[in-house]
Amino acid sequence: MANLLDVNNLQTVFRTDKGEVTSVDEVSFSLKEGETLGIVGESGCGKSVTSLSIMRLLGKGGRVKHGSVKFKDRELTNLSEQEMRNIRGNDISMIFQEPMTSLNPLLTIGNQLMEGIRLHLKLSKKQAKLYAIDMLKKVGIPRAEAIINEYPHALSGGMRQRVMIAMALSCKPNLILADEPTTALDVTIQAQILKLMKKLKNELNTAIILITHDLGVVAEMADKVIVMYAGQVVEEADVYTLFDSPKHPYTKGLIKSIPHLDNDSSERLDSIPGTVPTLQHMPKGCRFHTRCPFATERCINEKPDLLQLKENESHSVRCFLYDSEQLDKDVREEVNS
Amino acid sequence: MFQYIIRRILIAIPVLFGVTVFTFFVINMAPGNPVDMYVNPSATPQQIALAKEQLGLNDPLWVQYGHWLGQLFQGNLGFSYSTREPVTSMLIERLGPTLLLMGTSLIVAYLIAIPLGILSATRQYSWIDYLTTGFSFLGVSIPHFFLGLGAIYIFASKLELLPTGGMNTLGGTTGFGDTFFHMILPVLVLATGIAGNMVRYVRSSMIDVLGKDYLRTARAKGLRNFIVTNKHALRNALIPIITIIGMDIPLLIGGAVVTEQVFQWPGLGQLTIQSIGSRDYSALMALNLIAAIAVLVSNLLTDVVYSIVDPRIKYE
């Protein structure tokens, strides 16, 4: 089966006062229909920018400098703005992190829901309203007929996120980009929203790119995972492999820093020392070497490539520690072609 | 909502009372009095003393104020000390020209400022933006009297295209066309200042809204830019603008004191200057009173409009 989405060697840059900065670099991944891809990493590692690059919603300063984004065999980076608008909200839609601020406070829920429905599905006002009520019911909003005339401020965060999900799903997209959809919600609501997303995804066979910094959410939802650090993919694997045998020191650090119930309460939780380097001060060589406990001379000077492992070709890692276990770059390209 | 409006009106009464007390005493603290201002230089001190006595100017201030207030409750704003005309009819005569001039200026200013502000915000840091902010800065900072005199010098004196002042040609036709002709320069001057101010508010409010999450949501739906800007962003951006418009509305009544003076416009602003010059206490009190009422009414109006535009605001 052909891939639904192919992102190849994506590089996204932003214009700033201090010149151009690269926010996302050499990012490649692919996604099949109905598959869920988790993208994990700390704040500022380029997760959101990756998803906004796919949607071409980077704003004024940002642009995709290199690479391709192929969706259903169409190259999104070359489409006209008009063609791109037909894709947004229709074939690809987004769910954002902040349900409290992602809805327009001056427009009713119904108005905001029906906008996309009328635009892409070409329904009449009356039909669109019935459709919108139906969507609200689908995402588990009680009194949908009344809520549709309410303004966002009358709804709680969890309810608003349900509205956002209804909005994202209303035109039956093939792909949903969910950018930290549960981060702003409290834990019980998080579980409800994840359950809802899983259910709807299975019903509609929608592919999801789930952006999060929460490995628990990834374990719950994703089929495969990419771990990003400082704008690059450092490890890619299916979800079981990633949790069972993480390779990259960064991934290991992330997994170690999850609190466990059986941890000794007097024990200090592991953490990765330091912070993500800023875009202007990206270290040479391996971008993680400043925080890596295994860093060698080579890591400081040479840039590692994201290479597949010999024992499991669906598992790739960007680290010199696995040099001997990895396929050569040339071999990998042969395998791909 | 209705109860809220009633409550606000009741609160306004003591405020108005305070304003009249304050202005009455401040006006009387100014040196000179109406008699000094209009008296014939050959009048004897006895005649002046008599005139003061007749006008009640020798009474203690609080008696004078009580007298004024008593008359006010009977709907009487008193007589002008200098022209002996009833103040009410003076105000009515002057109100029309001021409303016409200021109303036109405000409308012209908003018609220029709001689209320009939006344009400037959506093209932030483009040459259009720099040009707009540059001109708005000039518009705000050039004093009206200077701009007015400059305009008269160029358009009336040198080019002889437009009249230097007044509202109608003396002895000429008094039709609308003639008045329109006389309005061009003062409206230009007033609108420059108001628009210059407004552009900056519209621009910054719009820039603020353009960065909001819900606009990203709107774009992610595949909406056209025009709808994103004018449906989703503009409504939100106009909320703070309502406050600015609310602060401009009292100008409709208060008039443009300086501009009316420069262009000899027979409005309330000019009357204010004349009344100060002649220490015309009753005219000044009336002018202050209606200016204060205009401020209070437009404040109330602003709050009411807020609650209509923004569903998050509800008054109990």
UniProtKB/TrEMBL annotation, chain A:
| Residue ranges annotated for the ABC transporter domain, each copy included | 8-255
What organism is recorded for this protein? Terrilactibacillus tamarindi
* SUPFAM superfamilies in UniProt: P-loop containing nucleoside triphosphate hydrolases (SSF52540)
Compartments where found: Cell membrane
Write out the similarity annotation.
Belongs to the ABC transporter superfamily.
Q: Which GO terms describe its biological process?
A: peptide transport
**Can you list the GO cellular component terms from the UniProt entry?**
plasma membrane
Name of this protein: ATP-binding cassette domain-containing protein
NCBIfam families from the UniProt entry: oligo_HPY
Pfam families, alphabetized: ABC_tran, oligo_HPY
Q: Name one GO molecular function term.
A: ATP binding
Keyword terms, alphabetized: ATP-binding, Cell membrane, Membrane, Nucleotide-binding, Transport
What does the record say about its membrane topology?
Peripheral membrane protein
Automatic annotation (TrEMBL), chain B:
**Boundaries of each ABC transmembrane type-1 domain copy?**
95-302
Signal sequence coordinates: none
What InterPro entries does its record include? BPD_transp_1_N, MetI-like, MetI-like_sf
Any GO CC annotation of this UniProt entry: plasma membrane
| Major location (coarse) | membrane
Annotated transmembrane regions:
9-30, 99-119, 131-156, 176-196, 237-258, 285-309
Pfam annotation, one family: BPD_transp_1_N
Q: Does the keyword Transmembrane apply?
A: yes
Arranged from A to Z, the UniProt key words for this protein are: Cell membrane, Membrane, Transmembrane, Transmembrane helix, Transport
Question: Localized where?
Answer: Cell membrane
Q: How does it sit in the bilayer? A: Multi-pass membrane protein
Q: Name one GO biological process term.
A: transmembrane transport
Q: Does the keyword Transmembrane helix apply?
A: yes
PANTHER family noted in UniProt: DIPEPTIDE TRANSPORT SYSTEM PERMEASE PROTEIN DPPB-RELATED
Q: Which family does it belong to?
A: Belongs to the binding-protein-dependent transport system permease family.
Protein name, as recorded: ABC transporter permease subunit
**Organism annotation:** Terrilactibacillus tamarindi
